[in-house]
Design brief:
This protein has 124 residues and is α+β, with helices and mostly antiparallel strands. It has a domain at 51-123: Beta Barrel (OB fold (Dihydrolipoamide Acetyltransferase, E2P)), CATH 2.40.50.320. It is 33% helix and 35% strand. The chain is built from three helices and five strands. It has helices spanning 2-26, 40-50, 93-97; strands spanning 52-64, 69-74, 85-90, 104-112, 115-123.
């Protein structure tokens, strides 16, 4: 008797789950099968989700026109849990032209899997 009770207790949730799954699938016959297939919107949403915005203050230690970077010794960035460090940020020509080595700056940047890019920069 104990085995039969145990079997019933185990089988009941499985039977209920199967019933719920059948109702779920019944309403999806007319939906296109695109799950798991990347599309333009998915790629843009993933990229946006991967990019994080933050602001920081620091001192310009190098400008590399060929690499398109500004290297900044910056303080901690609490918004994205970064410690103080010196790092190179991608920066467009206009941004590189507004600062010089040794300038103390405030800057906004975005960071993600593709790297970090200065969005705006100004001298303090």
């Amino acid at each position: 008797m104990r085995v039969a009770t145990l079997m019933t207790m185990l089988a009941a949730p499985l039977a209920l789950a199967a019933c719920d799954r059948g109702e779920e699938a019944a309403g999806t016959d007319d939906m296109p099968m695109t799950e798991g297939m990347p599309n333009e919107n998915t790629a843009m949403m993933e990229q946006a989700a991967a990019m994080r915005m933050a602001s920081a203050e620091g001192t310009v230690t190098a400008i590399d026109a060929e690499a398109g970077t500004i290297t900044i010794d910056h303080g901690p960035v609490a918004a994205i849990e970064w410690p103080a460090m010196t790092m190179a940020f991608q920066a467009d020509e206009a941004a590189r032209g507004t600062v010089a080595v040794g300038d103390e700056v405030t800057f906004d940047f975005e960071t993600g899997d593709a790297g970090s890019r200065i969005v705006s920069i100004s001298k303090m």
